[in-house]
Amino acid sequence: MSTPQPDAHRPSDARAGDDRATPDDLLHSRTGTEVSAEDLVLAAGRDVTPENLDWARRKLAEEGPAAIDKLLP
Q: Region labeled Disordered — which residues (predicted)?
């Protein structure tokens, strides 16, 4: 009787504590849609809080949608 491999039944999405990096071909900086303040906060790796949303709104006002390009590959 064989023992299942630990990763044999893992879904394709990452689980908490997974240390594998996202492949470059799956990373996208923009999809051609509007960039929201929440998008910018999340791209910066920050929590969505009122303070961080205010920061993102100011950044978008100053730099426009290109602000997210500076955070993502």
A: 1-35
